[in-house]
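Researcher: Before we compare anything, I want clean individual predictions. No alignment, no superposition, just each chain on its own. First chain goes here; please echo the sequence and then give the structure tokens.
Model: Echoing the first chain and its structure:
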Amino acid sequence: MRVLVRDNNVEQAIRALKKKLQREGVFREMKARRAYEKPSERRGREKAEAIRRSRKAARKLAIREGLIAAPARKPRPAPRKAAAPTATAS
């Protein structure tokens, strides 16, 4: 996995890396591996995850086909503008 650092902006690169790791599920896997998980618990968790995924896919398909209404979208905040420099009398 690679993250480019532009204009020596390391903070922005770290945020991009964290977002990529979150999307890949690395943090979730690290948390799961901290303690031993019994095989029966693992099967139950995997089955629950599969059910959740299938319900989400069915919901998306129903929305696409117009069978159910899509959830209302949140309004996007207006982009912040940079503050104008203040003139000081000297």
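Researcher: Okay. Second chain, same rules.
Model: Second chain and its structure:
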Amino acid sequence: MNLGDKIRRYFSRPGFAKKFWIMAIGVFFMGFFLSFLIEVDLGTDPCTFMNITISRRLNILFGTWQLIMNTFLFIIVILFDRHQIGPGTIANMVCIGYTADLCRWIWKRTIPEYLFKEWPYRAVIFVAALILFVIAASLYMNADMGVSPYDAIPNILSNRLFKNISFKFVRIAFDGAVLLIGFLLGGRVEICTILMVFLLGPTITAVGKFLNKFEF
């Protein structure tokens, strides 16, 4: 099945419209709440940490660099496991970074800066944004409309190179390597980012299973 057939198959699936909108809502709010996590600067997921660091060094928008990186990874996914590609893959590649950039531009003009810089405000914003980001990511994943290129790479590594190693360890190692790249390029590693290497994936999966009971 070629990529075009794969995409057409998604459009013919039962409940496509409902799943598509659940995916779209999840992607939008991932970018929306990610903007708060970036602004309070207490830690993000490893992928965002690396991409924020690189975008600042290149002096380009976070969304632009994220799209460039995802395009490169997208080519790898096409070559080695195109079954992971769907409409949600493209939405994730294009929309999350630019949504975060747009929201940050709005926050700088509407929200007092001290709310992002001073305690306890930044801690409250961080916790609330992280919880809601996890819920949004769970909606996106449960829609089953394809995974992001970043998330597809650990699956490919696990299926093709590290078949005898538990996937969770492959994913942790992959996120850890991405974290290290961001650090070596000058990013400041927060403890919350380190914790996300080990906890974010399982937490999103657990929340997704809970939300799935409501048959979204």
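Researcher: What stands out in the second chain?
Model: The two ends are 28 Å apart (CA to CA). Additionally, The chain has one domain: 3-212.
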